[in-house]
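thread from #wetlab-drylab

HS: before we spend reagent money on co-crystallization trials with iron/sulfur cluster, can we at least see a predicted complex? here's what I'd submit
DV: go for it
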Amino acid sequence: MATVTINGKTVEVPDGTNLVRAAEMAGQEIPHYCYHPGLSVAGNCRMCLIDIRAMSAKQPNPMPKLQIGCNTIVQDGMVIESNNARVKEARQGVLEFLLINHPIDCPICDQAGECKLQEYYMDYGRYHSRFALEEKVDKGKVIPVGPDIMLDQERCILCTRCVRFLEEVTGTCELGVTERGDHTELTLAAGKQVDNPYATNIVDICPVGALTSREFRFRARVWYLDSSPSICTGCATGCNIDVDSREDRIYRIKPRANAAVNGYWMCDEGRRTWHRNQGEHRLSASYLRSGDEFVETDASEVTAKAAAALRAGSRTAIVASAAVSLEEGYLARQIAQRLGAGPCLVISPATSDIADDGKLISTDRYPNRAGLVALGYREEHVPPSGVDSVLALRADMVAADEGAWGDFLETMSETVVVTDAVGKTMAYADHVLAVGSHFEAPGAFVNRDGRLQVFAAAVAPPGRAVAGWQTLANLLAALGGPRYASVDEVFAALCLEIGLGAGRTHVAVGSDGTPLASWGANSLAKGAAGASRAGTPASI
Ligand code: SF4
Ligand code: SF4
Ligand code: FES
């Protein structure tokens, strides 16, 4: 560890920390453009200038010239200033240079509200440029550089974050910097498009409005959006994400940093998972079968009738997709136990036609296989025997294998379908309960590395659909089981049962998640950790 004093505040930071990070730890800001903690240091923007007043305890002499904080590593006893008159004047000069050729696009720029050029100009700028507006160098605007990415060369401040991402993270090198002086510009490599599976991360890391997402641009001003922490359900990696929404409509998903899971990145496929949350296929009301018809019915009535019908049967199987949350899986398992301990099955295959890429993308396209295995679910892809009723949980098994599952469901005396979307299995249902998706209720998943992670609700369920955990809690109560008033109560109960300790809450899991093993998981849960992949956490 090294002790460093920044603007009068003394902190201890790990050896090897640069001054931009050390300042953050001291609650101070050193403005920066080109530095990104997930990339190599380029040191080209000069925005992070600092004044070193003492190099170290052993060498307490000041540095004669200003240095860049991103490329200066802390030394024990170092003293720096980032807000004195010398630094302020130099930083104003840097901003003045950056803005000489920057267009006056802010009112129509999609980055407005989250643009580091706007923010730093207001906080550290000179306000009066000595350069004439008419003399700006014109460059390309509205240039498509990939299926989802537009480039505005005039807005680019040439920080090279995007170039380094495409070199160092994806290794695809689609963008580069060409020309000299004030004609320097960001350009596509000949014959290339930025269309790799992680491409849209360059939009996130561009500090200005030079790179924008074709899907998101001009759809919403960012200051109207609410951000909710969540977990991507695109595959078993469980990348940490923020879901940006407004008035119960999702507008975009961005990666949320978690060094133990996804670093600073996510894949484009995962970024688009919110598309499934909107559209005609979403179920917004519950139904009872009447002959060949479904009759829209209040969820409480469907629940009561489903409970009575299931109780009349002799053995119920729970058939779940590996996309159900831990809480939903636990409640469904309790339902099965009350109804005669039928099997609890996960029917989602662990493999797909998408290969593990050694970065983030997993061949297992489901977010909670390890969680359901920890709860005692069995992986099986064929219909169970010895049961006369089925509770299908977010599982469209008829779509997977119509012959086998269709024939099986024909023989059931009772089929209850709990789902957020219309599917083929509904055709065999006697009772249909409409539930919200994982964007619409809080819950927890366990990822492929056995990491327990929680997510918050970002938007409300559509129409008269109810949160999945609430629907199953109501069904369990209708069957005479315990009553749960909140998702935290369910979570605490399931943690106790699978050996994760008493009094556990979502808050205690933390924003970065917790390895199951660190909570002293019992042998069942330990076996589940890494159920779909053995090995170390994903690194990218
Ligand atoms: S496009 Fe954005 S990230 Fe890329 S060099 Fe320009 S300013 Fe930096
Ligand atoms: S790698 Fe998997 S979990 Fe991560 S963003 Fe992509 S689909 Fe989602
Ligand atoms: S952030 Fe240090 S030079 Fe750009």
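DV: Confidence is low (pLDDT under 50) at residues 523-539.
HS: ok that's useful, forwarding to the group
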